[in-house]
Every structure is written in C-alpha cells, then in structure tokens.
Specification:
The protein is of the alpha/beta class and 260 residues long. It is 33% helix and 27% strand. The strands form three sheets. It has a seven-stranded mixed beta sheet with strand order 5-6-13-7-12-11-8, sandwiched between helices. Strands 2-3-1-4 form a four-stranded antiparallel beta sheet, sandwiched between helices. α3 runs antiparallel to α4 and α4 packs across α5. It is elongated, with a radius of gyration of 22 Å. The N and C termini lie far apart (55 Å). The mean pLDDT is 91.
C-alpha cells in the first residue's frame, strides 16, 4: 500500500457451493497479488465465509470485486465498506437478527449475550443524545447486558432505577454523576409503575440530557410518557429462545410489579 493514502476497511463475504481444496487459498492469492491486506477471516452461518480487508485504492477494490464474481463454486454475497455490524459478524461468525419492517429493532437470545454486549457496547461508544430500548421478559439478562456493554464502551453507568440486586429508585444524583459521557439505566417498570414523584422528576431531567439513556421495558415507557417508538435510536429484544413472545398485562403489572 502506498504511504500517504488513506487505508479503508472493506467487508467481503461469499457463499460456498463446493468447498474444494485450495478455494480459500486461491481467493487469498488474488488479494495478495493486488496488495490488498486480509485483516481477519471467519466462517459465517449457512456455509458462508467473511473477510475483513484493508486497501487504499477504491478502483482496485472495484476491479477485484468483478474478478471474484467469476470464481466458480462461490457466490459473492457482500462486498462493501466495513460497517460496525460487519465487524461483529467477523468477530462472532454469526449475523445479528434484525426486524424486517423496523430496521431499528435488533433481536438476540440468551445464547447470544456475548454478541449482544459487543453490539450494544459499540452503540454506547457513540457520543451525543441516544435513547435505547431493551425489551425482554423477567430474568433474561437485560440489566446485566447493559452494564457489561457500558464496561465494553469504557463508560461509567449510572443506575437510576433497577431491580438487579434490590429495587433502586434514585431521587438525587451527585454532581459528578451528571455527564454527557455517562450511560443512564432506567427500568420503566420501577419508574413509571412504582416510582415516587421525586424519582420520576429526576428521570425526566435525565431524559433531557444529551447522553445515552438505556430504557428497560420501553413498552411501559411509551405507554406512560409522551415519548413514542420513533424517539428511540435502537430497540434491543432479548429472548430466552427464538419465538418467545415478549408480552405482559399492563393492568396486572400496575397491581404487582415484584415479579419484574
């Protein structure tokens, strides 16, 4: 690669129709001849393989893309500048499930908590005003995942309301707990169904801050406040298993929220 040129990262993925001996070597040789660096390789679901590439010449990448499409036994399924989601695919060897109609909704199961923590941690690294919802039934790992994601992002988390160890409903914060660089964790079950007026006033103050707020049970949040689903930057859904329905009776919850 030429010194002084900006090196960009690319994601290349292909589906294997016949995994003949030497197939990966042939593909790697093409990149080597054009001085394109292979930074990482991993198998991906459904007989696919993903490669993270580095190159400082977009014309060169367009040329090799056309060559790769001529290789027998494979179908090119992706060739694009690297995104955060692509990097996670390479790291974990699996795709992140995404809602077909609402592209802001991402789905995980308990078996994928490691992938979830990496994904949510990357989102939490971003600065500025962010509203993130986390949906899931009781004891599926919502709070634990958000705290682990905060650690991944190297940011301080502030629990405003939670039932992780014991029921928490903060009514005041110390001066150093106000910061746009912190991550604020809010459990809507606790805040809006059992919280005092002072606690809810603090939550509304936090919501106005240009910081990352993670809202557990966003269904309750939308029902009890003026916020709408469109106000969320991302919705994370966690299930014990695929197909589990995330659903609860609001009237019953208002009578008794201890199970949550």
């Amino acid at each position: 690669m030429d010194e002084g040129k900006e090196v960009k990262e690319w994601y290349f993925e292909y589906e294997i129709h016949r995994n003949r001996p030497g197939l990966l070597g042939d593909i790697a040789s093409l990149f080597g001849m054009l001085n394109i660096n292979i930074e990482a390789i991993n198998g991906v679901e459904n007989e696919r393989r993903g490669l993270l590439l580095q190159c400082d010449d977009e014309k060169k990448m367009s040329f090799i893309e056309s060559l790769l499409k001529q290789i027998p036994n494979i179908t090119v399924t992706a060739f694009r500048p690297l995104s955060m989601l692509d990097r996670l695919v390479i790291r974990h060897g699996r795709y992140i499930s995404r809602d077909v109609t609402d592209r802001k909704t991402f789905r995980f199961t308990r078996e994928e908590l490691g992938l979830l923590v990496d994904f949510l941690g990357e989102i939490c690294k971003r600065e500025g005003n962010q509203l993130i919802g986390v949906r899931g039934m009781p004891r599926v790992g919502k709070t634990e995942s958000t705290i682990a994601a905060s650690v991944h992002a190297n940011k301080r988390w502030i629990v405003i309301s939670s039932t992780l160890l014991k029921q928490t409903m903060a009514t005041t914060l110390a001066e150093d707990e106000y910061s746009p660089h912190h991550i604020y964790l809010i459990d809507s079950m606790v805040t809006w169904l059992r919280g005092s007026e002072r606690h809810q006033s603090l939550v509304r103050e936090i919501l106005q801050m240009p910081a990352t707020k993670i809202i557990e049970h966003p269904d309750i949040f939308v029902h009890e406040t003026e916020y709408r689903w469109e106000d969320f930057d991302a919705i994370i859904e966690i299930r014990n298993h695929e197909g589990e329905e995330i659903k609860y009776n609001l009237l019953e919850l208002k009578r008794n929220t201890t199970d949550f």
